[in-house]
Specification:
The chain is mostly beta strands. It is built from one helix and 22 strands. InterPro entries: Pirin (IPR012093), Pirin_N_dom (IPR003829), RmlC-like_jellyroll (IPR014710), RmlC_Cupin_sf (IPR011051).
């Protein structure tokens, strides 16, 4: 990225991998399962960003994972998590669950109750292999996130990060990924400045607009978000995302230019 202060590349929802299995409707930002695109095969340590809707009485049965940091961000409905570490939990809107699979775990994720669950399934590559499996949960209210960036996941050892199973502040991830979330009301603009650590190195970010308006088979609808900075500008609708690349200290603006609220995830990736 020599000579470029800031670059924004849109990732339209209509170009994401997607599937409708009846019990599951899913979109894949990056290559996943039967969907493969060498141009969208992860971004830095961020490897999976799936937006899933699961019908009541169904879900992902018990299956294994290893050497991934796996987190679930619940948008609506309720999600039941069970794993081989003995954790059993029902997650609701505002909840975030993070499993560091490490040397290996088995888990299931199923809809709880009579309503579908809508959640984002996110995987990141760990900074090192062979870690002991661990499990964390956090809760962040809509009030916390309204017109405010809330740090919901951050690297182990970062300021304010607790490695307690349940705690205030961000969940600890063994990966160079920090995840911020916000709910923007119409007209609101929030800046995000790339950290200055590692001066001279390019920084990466991925921005995703949550598809809160529903499952869209055609062009994305609902909220509209504008990303801008250094003379660049891109507009995103629900389900859309964007790759952002810039130098340390550079700022990108995230603004809701639509009529409804916009729920936005901002991944800052070293």
């Amino acid at each position: 990225m020599p000579g470029k202060l800031l670059e924004i590349i849109p990732r339209p929802s209509t170009e994401r991998g997607n599937a409708d299995h009846g019990w599951l409707k899913t979109f894949h930002t990056f290559s996943f399962a039967s969907y493969y695109d060498p141009n969208h095969d992860g971004f830095g340590a961020l490897r999976v960003l799936n937006e899933d809707r699961v019908r009541p009485g169904t879900g992902f049965g018990t299956h294994p994972h290893r050497e991934f940091e796996i987190f679930s961000y619940v948008v609506s409905g309720e999600l039941e998590h069970r794993d081989s570490m003995g954790n059993v939990e029902v997650l609701k809107r505002g909840d975030l669950q993070l499993t560091s699979a490490g040397t290996g775990i088995r888990h299931s994720e199923k809809t709880y109750g009579s309503k579908p669950v809508h959640f984002l399934q996110i995987w990141a590559l760990p900074s090192r292999a062979g870690l002991a499996p661990t499990y964390f949960t956090r809760h962040f209210s809509d009030k916390d996130k309204t017109n405010n960036w809330v740090r919901i996941v951050a690297p182990v050892g970062a300021e304010g990060v607790s490695e307690t199973r349940e705690a205030e502040g961000p969940a600890p991830v063994n990966s160079p990924v920090t995840l911020w979330a916000a709910i923007l009301t119409p007209g609101t603009k929030l800046p995000h400045t790339f950290p200055v650590e590692g001066a001279g190195k390019g920084r990466k970010a991925y921005v995703h607009v949550v598809q809160t308006g529903g499952y869209n088979e055609g062009p994305a609808t609902g909220a509209t978000v504008r990303l801008s900075g250094e003379g660049k500008e891109v507009e995103l609708r629900e389900g859309d995302g964007a790759y952002v690349m810039g130098l340390p200290g550079r700022e990108v603006q995230v603004q809701n230019v639509g009529e409804g609220n916009a729920e936005v995830l901002f991944f800052d990736i070293e």
